[in-house]
Design goal:
Elements (H helix, E strand, L loop, with lengths): L1 H23 L32 E7 L12 H13 L3 E7 L5 H10 L6 E4 L1 H9 L12 H6 L2 H5 L2 E2 L2 E2 L2 E7 L1 E5 H6 L17 H14 L4 E3 L9 H11 L17 H15 L12 H9 L3 E7 L1 H6 L10 E4 L13 E8 L5 H16 L3 H9 L2 E2 L11 H8 L14 H16 L5 H22 L1
Parallel strand pairs: 1-2, 1-3, 8-9
Antiparallel strand pairs: 3-11, 4-5, 6-11, 6-12, 7-9, 7-10
Length: 464
């Protein structure tokens, strides 16, 4: 035991000596100070700093009535979006201004011309792509994930891009088509004249004419169908209507020239002119706008309206002045072949006003509106549209939305992506008006439109 204790004591002494030698050794021969003797705290490899506060920024958001109203108040839902957005981004002040489809386009043109464009807007490709071609917008590619890029069809991206740059963030979509007052046909006992028993609801021009005649003969207080040619709004309805009645296209496959000036489409336009006289189409259509015709439909005074979609169906709920059930139908075609439907596509764009902070803030707003786990789905439903993303379906428990999903198979490339489209559309309604007023034949009107539009396409291509 004594020997063991002796060796233990010796071991302790050696350990102490080694500790002292280690503690005293330093580069200058001086002992290192202990923590208590040091007057400065020891530095760490990663100094702790408070995260930099986000700088406050204000952006302006101009919005057409893209969402259904809350309590009948235009803009109230948008204010709810902003309130929820500010809970996550209190540093970004969003100034909302609601604009109308009638006066909004001109107001935007004036704002752009005077360098006072909004920072962000919810709109459609017809205007957005034109602004992109004029380099008025900020590209959005850096905010689009590979998941989102792969989840949206090439056809919709084609409407959102100029070259390899994305200028519109696609959010909601739906095929443009017709709508019919189903209740009228039930009351006159002619529901069998509508193609509702066919899963795809396709039908012919002749079947359509029979349905119009049945309304005229059995519901004299209801106008069978509508048409309009007063302003640019809703032009997609008239061009798709004529193109399908004449089994044609508005522009050719590569959007390099007008294709609707065929004999068949001209005959369809001549039929519309005569149908006004026969009281199968609303009279005075040359002086009616798309909104006027849809208002007649919502009042129960029109059996068919030619510019409708699942989006408009939802947004028109508070505007209905009569109780009736409306259902969606594709445009009839001359030979019953599958129709060609233009897609409605809604999305957001950012004007490049030369302020990087505002552009970054606007991207955060777009991302919140489109992709927030709670508000993304809520916002989509409030538009009344289908998702631009292929993986998001079944948003509504409604037969008409199920049909709208099915009708996406008929969507074709819209002419809105054509070079010079902003100018092309200005020639369309004046030529329709000349035909409707009897000044020229349908063929003369469409040929005159083609000559002007083709010149605009060529000029735009030369400048690009």
């Amino acid at each position: 035991m004594a020997a063991k204790s002796k060796w233990l004591a010796l071991g302790l002494i050696m350990t102490l000596l080694l500790t002292l030698i280690s503690a005293c050794s330093s580069g200058n021969g001086e002992p290192k100070p202990t923590k208590e003797a040091s007057s400065q705290p020891e530095p760490t490899s990663q100094p702790s700093e408070e995260p930099a506060k986000a700088e406050p920024v204000e952006i302006t958001w101009w919005n057409f009535p893209s969402y259904q109203t809350l309590d009948g108040e235009v803009g109230k839902y948008e204010k709810e979006i902003i309130k929820a957005f500010n809970e996550k981004h209190p540093e970004i002040k969003v100034k909302l201004e609601m604009i109308t489809f009638d006066g909004g386009p001109q107001k935007l043109n004036v704002a752009i011309a005077t360098n006072s464009a909004p920072d962000v807007i919810y709109d459609a490709p017809g205007r957005i792509i034109d602004w992109g071609k004029k380099e008025l917008l900020a590209p959005l590619d850096d905010m689009i994930t590979s998941e989102v890029r792969g989840d949206i069809s090439p056809a919709l991206w084609k409407q959102s891009m100029v070259g390899d740059k994305t200028y519109m963030y696609p959010i909601n979509t739906a095929p443009f088509m017709m709508a019919v007052n189903k209740t009228v046909f039930e009351k006159i006992g002619k529901l069998d004249l509508l193609p509702l028993d066919r899963p795809d609801r396709t039908w012919t021009f002749e079947e359509y004419k029979l349905a119009l005649q049945a309304v005229k003969e059995n519901a004299p207080d209801v106008i069978p169908s509508g048409f309009f040619a007063k302003s640019q709004a809703g032009d997609q309805g008239t061009r798709a209507y004529l193109a399908n009645l004449g089994v044609s296209r508005f522009l050719n496959e590569d959007n390099s020239a007008v294709a609707i000036n065929t004999d068949e489409a001209a005959a369809a336009l001549d039929w519309i002119v005569q149908a006004q006289k026969d009281k199968l189409v609303v009279g005075g259509s040359s002086s009616l706008a798309a909104g006027d015709v849809n208002d007649l439909f919502l009042q129960g005074k029109l059996a068919f309206t030619i510019n409708y979609s699942a989006v408009l169906k939802a947004q028109n709920v508070p505007n209905k002045k009569a109780e009736f059930e409306e259902v969606l139908l594709p445009f009839p075609t001359l030979d019953g072949s599958p129709p060609k439907l233009e897609p409605y596509l809604g999305g957001m764009a950012i004007f490049n006003n030369g302020n990087d902070a505002k552009i970054a803030a606007a991207k955060k707003l777009i991302d919140f509106i489109a992709n927030d786990p709670e508000w993304g789905r809520k916002n989509l439903i409030q538009t009344g549209g289908l998702s631009a993303r292929s993986s998001i379906t079944g948003l509504y428990d409604d037969a008409e939305y199920e049909y709208a999903e099915l009708a996406r198979q008929f969507i074709t490339d819209p002419p809105t992506i054509a070079d010079g489209f902003a100018e092309i559309r200005t020639f369309w309604f004046p030529e329709l008006q000349r035909a409707l007023l009897g000044a020229v034949s349908g063929k003369e009107a469409l040929d005159a439109f083609a000559a002007k539009a083709n010149e605009a396409i060529g000029k735009a291509k030369a400048q690009s």
